[in-house]
From TrEMBL:
Top-level taxonomic group: Bacteria
Annotated organism of origin: Nocardioides eburneiflavus
Record flagged with keyword Metal-binding: no
InterPro entries: Aminotrans_II_pyridoxalP_BS (IPR001917), Aminotransferase_I/II_large (IPR004839), ArAT (IPR024892), HisP_aminotrans (IPR005861), HistidinolP_aminotransfase (IPR050106), PyrdxlP-dep_Trfase (IPR015424), PyrdxlP-dep_Trfase_major (IPR015421), PyrdxlP-dep_Trfase_small (IPR015422)
Protein name in the entry: Aromatic amino acid aminotransferase
Gene field: hisC
Amino acid sequence: MTSPQPRPNVLAIPAYVAGKPPVARPGLTSYKLSSNENPYPPLPGVLEAATEAAAQMNRYPDMGSTALYAALSEAMGVPVADLAAATGSVGLIYQLVNAFCEPGDEVVHAWRSFEAYPIAVTAGGATSVQVPVTADGRHDLDAMAAAVTERTKVVIVCTPNNPTGPAVTQTDLDAFIAKVPTHVVVVVDEAYLEFVRMYDAIDGIATYRRHDNVVLTRTFSKAYGLAGFRVGYAVAPAPLAAALRAVSLPFGVSHVAQAAAIASLAAQDELLARVDDLVARRADLVARLREVGWELPDAQGNFVWFPLGERALDFAAACGEVGISVRPFAGDGVRVSIGEAEAFDRVVEVAARFAP
């Protein structure tokens, strides 16, 4: 007799590596710059809304996310039928594979990109087709279009790309979508859209309105600072949104998370001020890193990318010695989140020692 065995694809799922907290160093304030978290406390009114919602923890959440969908619909001017909520944007990736892929079907995405893509694809029994990013960390959209086969059911464009940083332009996205067969779902993952400051930036809402196969995935984890509550949402043509809702985990988005997200949407002025501050910190850090010899990929998220190759783990260890946790990707590079400005002196100091 043998013990129960999981499906072969389950054994092949790569492990997700979360950003580690910093190790305390005597005489130093430690900073966690490893998880692309928002360093600010909750937006005004959010803690109060969450606390009030927590008092009803004996009740199930609204499985239809009715109030959240209404708030999102009003904020973006899209029909409620075109929305699907999930436990963060990563939950939506799992749902997309579950809804549109048979075992053996292919999902095309850039690499290196968001670490959860191959995990979600493999867990769903599909095949992850990884197209290398360019030398400056950008999506090679021509190569991605060429990688689409008769087995392709989903393609994912992560913009800005996590962890390398560059964002796709509207012109390039339009050209790419035109090359993808209309029966293939084109996912535009906009987890960091609020931080983009560039010419010809993507207008995700306008793009989804022009195409029957485009899905936008977004999250409250980054700019809105609700990483601990796990709430994301998709904007898609009604049939695609309905498919995502159909395979969603019942009661997956908690009542507290829904209440916090709704309150966050009501604090747009403060949100924009905080995002502008983080963008200014990003620009300052990039300028300082250039002064010590670094040419970094264009940073359009709330992080910067050091293409360190085989020196990635050494760089991360050096940051750890001065009380800063960063996110290394062995053999590729290191991602450093834009967090507390006080941490940047030490990041620049370490970076100067590793400058190419």
